[in-house]
Specification:
This protein is of the alpha+beta class. It has helices at 21-32, 57-65, 69-75, 119-127, 179-184, 207-210, 249-257, 305-325, 332-372, 392-395, 460-467, 481-486, 516-525, and strands at 10-17, 37-41, 54-55, 83-87, 94-99, 115-116, 133-136, 139-146, 149-156, 161-172, 188-203, 217-220, 223-229, 232-239, 266-280, 284-285, 288-290, 296-297, 438-440, 443-444, 453-457, 474-478, 494-497, 503-507. Strands 1, 2, 7, 8, 9, 10, 16 and 17 form an eight-stranded mixed β-sheet that branches. It has an eight-stranded mixed β-sheet with strand order 5-4-12-13-14-11-15-18. It has a four-stranded mixed β-sheet with strand order 22-21-23-24, with helices on one face. α1 packs parallel to α4 (119-127) and α8 runs antiparallel to α9 (332-372). The two termini are 34 Å apart.
Length: 530
Amino acid sequence: MAVADTQVEVEVEVLIVGGGPVGLTARALLERWGVRTLLVEKHRELSPFPRSRLVNARSMEIFRQLGLAAEITACGFAPEFGRIRFRDTLYDGDFASAAMVGINAPIPESPVIGVVTSQDRLEPTLIGAADAQVRFGAELIGLDEEPESVVALLTDHQHGRETRVRARYVLAADGANSTVRQRLGIGTTGPGEMGGFTTVVFDADLGPWCAEQPAGVYFTAHGSLAPLYPEGGWAWFGLTPEDAGRADWSALVSRALGPGADTRAEVLRVQHWVMNAFVAERFRHGRILLAGDAAHAIPIFGGMGMNAGIADVHNLCWKLAGLVHGWSGPSMLETYETERRPVAQLTLRQAVANTQLAVQVLNRRREQRHTDGAATSARVELPWSERYFAQLGLVLGVVYHSDAVLADGSTAPPLSDAGSDADYVPTPEPGHRMPHLWLSHDRSSLDAFGEWFTLLTPDPHGWERDSDSLSWPLRIEPLTGEQTDLCGLAPGGALLIRPDGHIGARWRDRPPGDSALRHALATITGSTGR
């Protein structure tokens, strides 16, 4: 992995490799922390293909923190598109359907809901969320790790130029076929390649069929169909045929539309891709960190892959900021893999299970048509009881166990019956995402978090004395009596919230002495502060 001995032209604190949603989100988060970054992307422009199409509630909470939620929502579909429908062809009626929980309607567990949108609409919004430099057409061809930095060699094939970049850290979000992961020799575990697929972007007047029964995805026996943008545009995706070079893509799409369709699909773009399913054996190699598809490739069923990557960098960026600004120690980086790799493994298992469930529905329909006749209009009994997208336990209920979380040795009760879905029960226990509580009529507890630690307490004046001499970024937020009770705190208690919104420590009541807060922050960050 040696890099040629040429002059270093650029120095940054974090080099981000990969210009998809994960890398772009990391760029925006790090800029908010005052960390100098450079993002490089080997392609010469953003992808014109829709690719990932679901922003879940947790990702939208992160985008709300960045001030982007309203714009992302405005570019996406209305909540009623938060549903999947199974049909023999698009022209036919549903034989099964399921709601996307947290997308199709507001939920009490969050101040936001997710949205069905297309990646090619999301990425321009993320580009505009920061001013840090982005270089398209810059491919990483070399990495050299040094004791205090990483030196990367980039090439611009169009102009024939090479550039050396010295960075304190490298964040690799360069996809399932990650150049960085391969150069580091990091292996993967899991099923691996699950098949070759093709996406066909096309135009057709399909509004009359779908206006009264909108959906984010229509699964058919001949591939899946998805509306791309509120103003129009569609995509078909399915297994790549054996003779793809001679395929009549318009005819394939028309087959999924149905024999009664009096329309011809105008094919605009075709993309072949491989569905991968794996988790990297390691998420870190020294000062180089993997995130998103570079760390875990998640099958598309359930819409979890991109969202898992966004959660990765939300976990990682505050830790990198602490290292850059001097209020955390090197051990902080170890907690990234400790916290996020188990989540990736769980997400992969859920996505594979989702795939199996979707196949079950199609197989049941095939058997039904064979038994009752091709024209049957009977519905198929769903194998998941409307729970295909009921994944709030995975979306909002992630819990971290690492040195960056102080277990208090007690178990708090769930927050009343705030959760309507059994998969997620809000709790103020350390390691969990801080539950959403309304601090005022339009301000959530989640809105109190940002580029700082947050102490939630009914006794702000008492805790302010302990925070006067601390060097970590910290804000104190008062709780009302009702909020205090919901959090299971006594009048002197407190919750210490990490910048990523997860609870780092909890004191049910005022601890003796004045060192508890300092000790908690030092332990979480692996440092004594600046």
